[in-house]
Structure formats: structure tokens, C-alpha cells
Specification:
Elements (H helix, E strand, L loop, with lengths): L3 H7 L5 H9 L4 H10 L3 H11 L5 H34 L5 E3 L1 H8 L11 E4 L5 H10 L3 E2 L6 H7 L1 E6 L2 E6 L15 H5 L1 E5 L2 E5 L2 H14 L5 H11 L6 H10 L3 H13 L13 H16 L7 H11 L3 H9 L6 H6 L5 H7 L18 H14 L3 H13 L9 E8 L6 E8 L2
Parallel strand pairs: 2-5
Antiparallel strand pairs: 1-2, 3-4, 4-5, 6-7, 8-9
Helix pairs in contact: 1-2, 4-5, 10-11, 10-12, 10-13, 13-14, 15-16, 18-20, 19-20
Length: 432
């Protein structure tokens, strides 16, 4: 069961009496600290326990204190690197917007050390994407996918690099292509604002655009982490948010149900008053209740690819958006391209569904023997009619190396999946 102390810390304005009450009732501090770490709330837990003078055993207290200090140092490094990256790109005439990570840490919390982050996200105009990528490489950034076809980056509208020890996600759309039914589009640049970060300033999305983005980002990941809900509830409570604008843009982007889900979650899970009254959406309400139950129980939901797809399909408001939900798992990722170079996008369409042949029970990105069988059938059918079908058959011969002979030495390799946040696991044959 999720500790109520964790939920109280996630609220924008925790009740001090409830914090003391929940802290006094804790009988397994190691479990509570582990839950806080899992949800990215360990710094907040440490902050509130210190403020209330809670009696915490030495070992978990040291664990929280150490994580808080390391997070503070990491966030300062991430913030300074963001300023440096922005300066590099802007000096070349490339506009930059920062969002998530450092921006939320410096603008939504009492201290930037309270918000954990794993990378720095920057957004550039689509027309400048390739130039920005090449410029960052020339300045010492290292691509996580060296040699990958730029068409894969362009398809996903994002790529990832490392700037020293700082992971960088370079975007040229605030949402991946297949989730862009509610993208703020070019208007986001005109509505952007400047905010302080790490002693400097960067441009970011307007409060209304950022709130919608966080709504869709949380829904994309099924709100499995409470730190996303903590970000959202803090931004939603800000007086500068124009809710008439938020609601209008959500309706225009067919994201009203996604917005309603976030509002229902802060009401049901965090017990926060709703900052705005929206007409009830029974689907969003039902999804919020199920997510709240699963998060409180500590089991997490959805568990499988199939459940995630059904969750996303329930949120989609138009037939086109629902079709994209089911089309998304069949698309290649950067990890896929790193493993196997396809001759063309058409071939990718033909062969790739096999990677999820065991779907919906298998997480995306995992290969199975059924992949070869699936590809074989499609290739034989298609090669009768198209030249690309013969290339598909050639691709099949490469994929059969997934099952090497006993004499070959095999290793399991893990490649980060930039689109879904997981790892693609594949078998690499080594004949050396």
C-alpha cells in the first residue's frame, strides 16, 4: 500500500497536522523511502519531514538526506548545462524553448532541489532541427544513436544526446508525431515566456500550454509516477493560469478528456480542490478512479501494452485519435533502427508488426520468435506484387539471426527506447 505520507507530500500545500500524523504512524520507514524514490518524491519527503521535525530513524533519514543533496547538485548541473545549450543554439540563430525538468524545478517548487529529473528537454523549430543537431554534435554532444538515419529522427520529431554527463532530449515538436492531436503548434513560440533557471533565464511554454503539455505527457505515461501529478497540481494552482484559455485550447486540440482526467486525479488522489469547474466526463472519472485505486494499492496500472493501449484509446476523443493509438505500437523506434537498418519506411511497415507479435501481454520493444514467422508470411505475400517485397524477404533473412546456431556466442544488449521510455532488448550474434 502506498503510504498516505507520500500522497500528502505530493500536494501543492500539504497540511502540516496531517504530515505529523502520517509520519507518526509509519512503522516501516525503509518501505516509505523506497516508495518516495520510486515516484521521484524523495526530496519532497525529506524537505517536509525536516520542516516538521519528524522522528525518523537514522538509516532512512541519512538515505533521504543523501539523495536530497545529490539531487540538488545534479539539478544545478542540469540547469547550468541548459543555459549553456541555449546560448550555443541561440548564438547560431536557433530559437530554444525548455520544458519539463529544470523549468518545473525552478518555477513550481520552493527550491529547485525538490524536483527530481533525469534529463534536459529542449524544443527547437522543425526547420532548424537538423542544424541544431549538427551544431550540438560539433560542440561536444554525443548522440545515443550514432549513425542512425536522420529520417528516423525526423519521423519521431526527437532524438537524444549526452552533453558530458547530462542527457539531452532534443525535440522539434512538443509531442511525438503520433500523439500530436493536441500539440500547441507554432503558436507556442509566440506565447512563450522567459523564466529564471540556475542564475540565468530561458524561454519556456506559457502556463496554459505547459499545463496542457503536462496533462498529455502524464496521460501518455498513464500517470504512473506521482511527481508528474505534483508538477501538474502545482502549476494548476498558480493564479497566472488563465483557465478559459486552457479549456479553449483543450477543446480545440481534442484534449478535454485528458484535461478532465488530470483534474479528477488531483481531486481523488491528492484531495486537492479543483481550480476550475468542468462538465463531468464519465470516462475520465472512471479512469481516474481506477488509477487512484491502483496507485494507492501500490500495484500500478496499466501493467501491459494492451492495457496501455486501451487506456489511451479511452482518452482519445475522435476516431482519428483512436486510430493513432492502435497505430503507435507498430511504429519503429530509434532503438529498432540501431538494431536493424531497414531499406525504407515501407519495409518497416511490412516487417515491424512482428516485434509485437506477442502483444498485448509483452512490453513493447521485445522481440519474440513469432516475429520471424509473422514477417515470413507477410514477406511471401507482398513479394508477389512489389519490388519492396523482395527487400522484405532479404530483411527476413537478417531477422532469422535472432536464433543463432549453438556454436555462436550470444549476448543480450539493452538500448534506450526514446519514444516509449523503455528499453529494446535484442540478441546480438557474435562469431568472434
Amino acid at each position: 500500500m502506498l503510504s498516505p505520507l507520500i500522497l500528502e507530500c505530493a500536494r501543492p500545500q500539504p497540511d502540516r497536522a496531517r504530515l505529523r500524523q502520517f509520519a507518526a504512524a509509519v512503522d516501516d520507514w525503509d518501505a516509505v523511502v523506497s516508495q518516495a524514490e520510486e515516484h521521484g518524491l524523495a526530496p519532497l519527503l525529506h524537505w517536509h519531514l525536516q520542516a516538521e521535525g519528524a522522528d525518523v530513524p537514522e538509516a532512512p533519514a541519512h538515505r533521504l538526506r543523501d539523495r536530497f543533496r545529490r539531487n540538488a547538485c545534479r539539478n544545478l548541473r542540469f540547469g547550468s548545462e541548459l543555459l549553456q545549450l541555449s546560448a550555443i543554439l541561440e548564438s547560431a540563430g536557433i530559437p530554444v524553448l525548455a520544458f519539463k525538468g529544470p523549468v518545473t524545478a525552478w518555477t513550481l517548487y520552493e527550491s529547485p532541489a525538490l524536483r527530481e529529473m533525469s534529463d534536459v528537454d529542449i524544443l527547437v523549430p522543425p526547420a532548424d532541427a537538423r542544424r541544431a543537431y549538427d551544431l550540438l554534435l560539433s560542440e561536444g554532444c554525443v548522440s545515443n544513436y550514432p549513425g542512425a538515419d536522420w529520417r528516423m529522427f525526423d519521423w519521431l520529431s526527437e532524438t537524444s544526446l549526452n552533453f558530458g554527463e547530462v542527457p539531452i532530449d532534443l525535440h522539434w515538436a512538443s509531442l511525438p508525431r503520433l500523439l500530436r492531436f493536441a500539440d500547441a503548434g507554432a503558436g507556442a513560440w509566440m506565447r512563450s515566456r522567459q523564466v529564471p533557471v540556475a542564475g540565468g533565464a530561458v524561454r519556456t511554454l506559457s502556463p496554459e500550454d505547459l499545463l496542457l503539455f503536462l496533462s498529455i505527457h502524464g496521460a501518455k505515461h498513464c500517470w504512473t509516477s506521482l511527481n508528474w501529478l505534483a508538477d501538474w497540481s502545482r502549476l494548476a494552482a498558480r493564479p497566472e493560469v488563465d483557465w478559459d484559455v486552457v479549456i479553449a485550447r483543450a477543446r480545440a486540440g481534442r484534449a478535454s478528456r485528458t484535461l478532465s482526467l488530470a483534474l479528477a486525479l488531483i481531486r481523488d488522489l491528492l484531495e486537492c480542490p479543483s481550480p476550475v469547474d468542468l462538465p463531468g466526463d464519465p470516462i475520465a472519472t472512471a479512469l481516474a478512479q481506477q488509477l487512484s485505486r491502483e496507485l494507492r494499492s501500490g500495484s500500478g496500472w496499466p501493467h501491459t501494452t494492451g492495457q496501455r493501449i486501451r487506456f489511451a484509446a479511452a482518452l482519445a476523443e475522435t476516431p482519428a485519435a483512436k486510430a493513432l493509438v492502435f497505430w503507435n505500437p507498430l511504429q519503429p523506434t530509434l532503438a529498432d533502427d540501431a538494431w536493424l537498418r531497414f531499406p525504407g519506411r515501407c519495409i518497416t511497415r511490412i516487417t515491424w508488426p512482428g516485434r509485437s507479435a506477442s502483444w498485448p501481454s509483452t512490453p513493447p520493444g521485445y522481440f519474440s520468435p513469432a516475429c520471424v514467422a509473422f514477417t515470413s508470411v507477410l514477406s511471401v505475400i507482398v513479394m508477389e506484387y512489389t519490388l519492396e517485397g523482395s527487400l522484405a524477404l532479404l530483411t527476413l533473412s537478417t531477422m532469422t539471426r535472432l536464433v543463432p546456431p549453438p556454436a555462436a556466442r550470444t549476448t543480450l544488449s539493452k538500448v534506450p527506447d526514446a519514444a516509449g521510455g523503455r528499453h529494446a532488448v535484442f540478441i546480438r550474434r557474435d562469431l568472434g
